[in-house]
Design brief:
Layout lengths: L5 H11 L8 H8 L4 H38 L3 H25 L6 H27 L6 H24 L4 H46 L5 H17 L1
Helix pairs in contact: 1-2, 3-4, 4-5, 4-7, 5-6, 6-7
Length: 238
């Protein structure tokens, strides 16, 4: 019996043990595209771009409006909404993917931690660059930007150390969680300080505006009658 060609054998193998997910990309490469790399690479790259497009449309139509409404209902500042609601929405897929990679006896701890580091690098490099190209020019508060970048580097350095050691202890896991709590508290404290400064600087302007408005008020009819009466009294006395 003649042996099956490589493409047929690979197709049968990936169909016998399909990867979890909605679309079996290995089957697309081995079966549909006959394992032709010159054809598979452009097609799979196009599928990847379509996935990014779907994510952008879904986020713009559902995720961003929901976060905006929650932030307005909870009266959260943009910074607090970013470090809580947006961070939860963006980090939830990474958290579940890393948990799935670390779970079980056949887990891949390095792959799970590397996925987190890779996601952070992707967001810091590609997403920031793409957003800057699309939405520029825009102003960034120096204090908030420095705070976020510095604390992100601290967290990434700690995670990189854990990745190199290939083990994580209980105190390290608790420390990472407490570090995030500290970060949220620092953002909240800085927002309170900024709001207090804005209110204190606005009070003199409001007072000056009220005084100028009182001086510029039109004279009423009663005031005009009183002025005429006083003028007539002065003339009659003379």
């Amino acid at each position: 019996m003649a042996s099956l060609p490589y493409t047929a054998a690979a197709c049968a193998s990936v169909r016998a043990d399909p990867a979890p997910g909605l679309l079996n990309y290995a089957a697309v490469h081995s079966c549909l595209l006959r394992a032709d790399r010159r054809l598979s690479l452009p097609v799979l790259a196009l599928l990847l771009l379509l996935h990014f497009r779907f994510l952008a449309v879904a986020a713009g139509a559902h995720f961003s409006p929901a976060v905006s409404r929650l932030a307005s209902r909870l009266r959260l500042s943009p910074s607090m909404a970013a470090v809580t609601l947006l961070a939860l929405g963006n980090g939830a897929p990474d958290a579940f993917a890393s948990a799935a990679a670390l779970r079980g006896e056949g887990g891949l701890p390095r792959a799970g931690l590397a996925a987190i580091l890779s996601a952070g690098a992707f967001v810091s490099a590609f997403v920031v660059g793409a957003v800057s190209l699309i939405a520029a020019p825009f102003a960034v508060p120096p204090a908030s930007f420095t705070r976020d970048v510095f604390l992100y580097l601290v967290a990434a350095s700690a995670l990189f150390y854990i990745y190199l050691s290939a083990e994580i202890f209980l105190w390290q896991a608790v420390g990472l969680v407490l570090f995030y709590v500290f970060f949220v508290g620092l953002v909240f404290y800085m927002d309170l300080g900024a709001a207090g400064k804005a209110v204190s600087s606005a009070e003199p302007e409001i007072a000056n505006g009220m005084s100028r408005g009182a001086m510029d008020l039109p004279v009423s009819v009663e005031h005009q009658k009183q002025r005429k009466a006083s003028l007539w009294t002065v003339l009659t006395k003379r």
